[in-house]
Amino acid sequence: MYKIIRKKQLALVTISLLFLIVIFSNVEANVVDLEHNDFLSSNDCNYYWGNTELKLTDGTGFFDVIKKDGTWWFVTPDGYAFYSTGLNVVSHDKKYIYNISIIEKYGNHFNWAQAIRNRFKEWGFNTLGAWCSYELFDNIPYTHTFIFRHEGTTEWRRFVLNHPDVFDPSWQELVRGEITQVATQLKDDPYLLGYWLDNEIHWGPDEDDSKTLLENYVAARHDSPGKQKVVSFLREKYNEDVEKFNNVWNMNLENFDELYDARKLGREGWRIKSKLLLAKTPLFKEETSLLFNREILVKAESDIDGFSRLVAGTYFNFITSTIRDQDPNHLILGVRFHCAEGAPKEVIEECAEYCDVISINYYVDRKIVYNPNTFFKSLYRGLVPLDQWMKRYYKIAGKPILVGEFNTLTKDFKDIDLERAKHFEWFAKKCLDEPYIVGYHWFSFYGTVNKYDQPNSTIVDCMTHVNDQVYDLHK
Fold first, then answer.
1. H, E, C per residue of the chain
2. What is the value of pTM for the model shown?
């Protein structure tokens, strides 16, 4: 009886082993061939995914930027031209069903990453953009995204949206700690393209908050470092003459100490900007002189611009110097400006002072470059209407532009995939036409595949067609 039981047990073990072998063989059948790696020898790409037909420098060992014959380029660590074509959110953990699907298909996340890396080569992409699981990938250029706007005290965030108190030592300490942790790990990696400092931070009147930075900091609590700084700034600006301040800002303060408890100024910054813009228009110049005192508004605008520069300079100087203390090797790619209505000139200038690249997230309608409603709202708020292709940023900064995100906002199409494909082609080719733009990153990866990791051929075929022309079109 014992021998019979033993034989049955052995039979069950044998069947189980055979079953596992079949299962794992099926998994392997779906996994890309990890040993087969032909991307280095095809499509004129070198080890760092640069263009071997365009040698620009001897290389620094890390990615760099250069202006050559009037055209800006990224430069690979070994000195070849590199135009950054990227996808955002190449990640396994953002979609639950997608994550289950890729585990079933590839067996683990590392095999999935290898498959995506091969797809990048097939589709003409060469950069892992923002919010990607880059730690799973080998030998592919990538970016790291810091998010510091939400750091700091809860009390500050009650009064100021989407912007940190850059004068707060506790915020600076949090930023320093995160940078130290990240940069010490990445500083020697030649595949790191660079660091994003943040994403769509509030720098002035926008669709979420109409306040200028001066108004934001005035709205904060009396004991916050930012509030202390703005009061100090205005005291010095008006040389303790509170009557002059009251006249400019339509206030009724007895002294500057009362400003600590104030939550708002007597004028709104966006109205000041819009009135002055109208005053510069020949058609309205005479009429506006009868409606408001231009001299007073110019003084108020000077306060707004001066404080914006102070905040931006403090922000960019502190973060970039902290990064470079830990990692002097890599590029700083800017702060991913939201291009909805334009960042203030002073902020762009300060960004250019400390960053290697100006990055912009740019969403615009393909068929109507300027939505009339958005255009006139921006004009009314006094913000410079956006140039069609970000030339305003380049003219102010003099630094190359990297598009951190783009997609179409339009959803009312029968074939949304076809519309997105057309938008990609239109936008990417416009970027390639401009000598100051050094790359574009599509938002996001999940639009290129479905929840079962099957490529969306309508979009992917178009992307591949355009990406294959990058080095022919950007000259």
1. CHHHHHHHHHHHHHHHHHHHHHHHHHHHHHCCCCCCCCHHHCCCECCCCCEEEEECCCCCCCCEEEEECCEEEEECCCCEEECEEEECCCCCCCCHHHHHHHHHHHCCHHHHHHHHHHHHHHHCCCEECCCCCHHHCCCCCEEEECCCCCCCCHHHHHHCCCCCCCCCHHHHHHHHHHHHHHHHHHCCCCCEEEEECCCCCCCCCCCCCCCCHHHHHHCCCCCCHHHHHHHHHHHHHCCCCHHHHHHHHCCCCCCHHHHHHCCCCCCCHHHHHHHHHHHCCCCCHHHHHHHCCHHHHHHHHHHHHHHHHHHHHHHHHHHHHHHHHHCCCCEECCCCEECCCCCCHHHHHHHHHHCCCEEEECCCCCCCCCCHHHHHHHHHCCCCCCCCCCHHHHHHHCCCEEEEECCCCCCCCCCHHHHHHHHHHHHHHHHHHCCCEEEEEECCHHHCECCCCCECHHHHHHHHHHHCCHHHHCC
2. 0.86
